[in-house]
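Journal club prep, notes for RB
We'll compare a predicted complex against what the paper describes. Inputs for the phenylalanine case:
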Amino acid sequence: MTDDLRSLEAETAAAIAAAPDLRALEAVRIGVLGRNGSLTALLKALGAVPAEQRRERGAALNAAKAAIEAALEARRTELEAAALEARLAAERIDITLPPRPAAPGTAADGSIHPISRTMEELTAIFGAMGFTVAEGPDIESDWHNFGALNIPDHHPARQDHDTFYLPGPDGRRPVLRTHTSPVQIRTMLTQPPPIRVIVPGRTFRADHDATHSPMFHQVEGLVIGRDITLGHLKGCLIDFLRAFFGIRDLPVRFRSSYFPFTEPSMEVDIGWNRRSGELGAGGDWLEILGSGMVHPKVLANCGLDPREWQGFAFGMGIERITMLKHGIPDLRPFYESDVRWLAHTGSDPLSPASLHGGV
Ligand code: PHE
């Protein structure tokens, strides 16, 4: 190969490597292989080469041309890939970037109300145990709220000063439900067993002081199956209470009690220190919820044969367990919509309740 060809090849290779983009590369190609390109000129001059050298010269020129074309092609692929990368990077919309919460306590910083938060936590804990969420109306019939639950006519909950009654046809007065237990009835009437539901929701009683509000919230639980026992009730509630309060060895006590719609019935207490308010230690007991095995009459009222089906139910106040968990002393601020209280007591809307992080 002659020197002129060698240096042409070297220069072209350097120019190809240095080309910063496809346009520059095209300029290099035209400069060498175009109609007036430098290699084209050498090819054109082949005719003037003495016959005995022509063959060798022709082969050298063709080899140089092939090498330059290959180098151009390789660089083009490289530059095209880089251009695509740059375009993808420039046009990227990162939909995964989480919004940045405003500084705590500022107006833009919304928070989850502690009642809603507790409902989310209940759903996370019981959801992990296979429960689904059921709902019912706030305005109930006397039969769903009382009668079907085996609550006798003379029961104090039925008295006018305890319950909000609404005017109704034929003297049958609808009630603002006094507990979430009527949803036990509604669920058993509409859903074939086995059943495993929780029912968080609003409840109403004619009460008003620092620890009672005419509107408050409860969560009901209902499990119906062929061989559900008191052992299941105890295991379920012990696991729930320990998960909810985040205390692994929280003492839990089951104390015999009475509800018309469960038999046997039990009040459930947790261990705490009455003086300091600390949960889980201290030797005192605090009543948390009511529970029991669903009364055979209630099953029968819902068309279930008590010899075939049995189960347990429980109910507790959502404000009460929320106040205990977070050391909130007064019930009233729950309903006052004071943004300072909400900013202080509410929780981060961007970290929903989950068992992984501990509810
Ligand atoms: N409904 C009862 C109450 O409001 C609580 C409860 C529910 C008790 C289910 C036993 C079973 O006090």
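Talking point for the session: The chain has a mean pLDDT of 92.
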